Amino acid sequence: MRIDILTVMPEILESPLNCSILKRAQDKGLAEIHVHNLRDYTEDKHRKVDDYPFGGEAGMVMKIQPVDACISRLMNEREYDDVIFMTPDGATFDQPMANSLSMAENLIILCGHYKGIDYRIREHFVTKEISIGDYVLTGGELPAACVVDAVVRLIPGVIGDEQSALSDSFQDRLLAPPVYTRPADYKGWKVPEVLLSGHEAKIMQWRLDQAMERTRRLRPDLLDE
Ligand code: ADE
Questions:
Q1: Residues near ligand 1 with C-beta < 6 Å?
Q2: HSE-up (13 A, CA, CB side) for residue 169
Q3: pTM, whole model, 2 decimals?
Q4: Cβ contacts of 180 within 8 Å, gap of 6 or more
Q5: Which residues 6+ apart lie within 8 Å of 119 measured at CB?
Q6: Rounded to the nearest 5 degrees, what angle is found at the Cα of 140, between the Cα atoms of 88 and 37?
Q7: Nearest to 166 by CA among 208, 203, 156
Q8: Helix (H) or strand (E) segment spanning residue 163
Q9: How far apart are CA 68 and CA 160, in angstroms?
Q10: Rounded to whole angstroms, how far apart are CA atoms 187 and 210?
Q11: 118-161 per-position pLDDT tens digit
Q12: Dist. CA 33 → ligand 1 center (Å)
């Protein structure tokens, strides 16, 4: 999968994209992530990416020209499954969306900044608008990093144990059961006996019961839907 991220703040994306699993996915050639600084696509000598809004509202608006130049160049090079705009008024990101995006070949993710972007970009280029929750961040970079992380870890081969992505919380609309590691007794705080029993069927039943109990208690809305 190839992901092109368009931003006016490329620095914010550096460490989330270049550590841990996302780094390994790129090193293994399973994901190719390119960050484009929209300033590099400006045509004026001040490399301006924003301007005052028509109609006299407060705040600045991202200009159409650098975004058009960058997206048009990328679209000339290959076909994209989606052009995603990160925005608090988009559809709320969830696991089914991550699953579906993980099947894409090429994605563009556009990070908003300032008061917003010239609406014509949304009308003419954007195919999906995604929010990571009902709160407003200073820009779309951290939301984009969340989406990229959630999507790339689902690409087969990215995380070692294939099973572990499938058993994540939310994959079956249940929260994940608790997990433990050694020692089995730490300062008298004991790991549930069943996990030490070696009895596979009982362990599976315990995990399911725990997942159901935690979901009912912490996220009953997941069971309602
Ligand atoms: N940009 C600013 N806030 C955001 C949010 N909650 N989700 C996506 N993009 C954003």
A1: 86-88, 112, 131-133, 135-137, 140, 143
A2: 14
A3: 0.95
A4: 191, 192, 195
A5: none
A6: 150
A7: 156
A8: helix 162-166
A9: 39
A10: 24
A11: 999 999 999 999 999 999 999 999 999 999 999 999 999 999 87
A12: 20
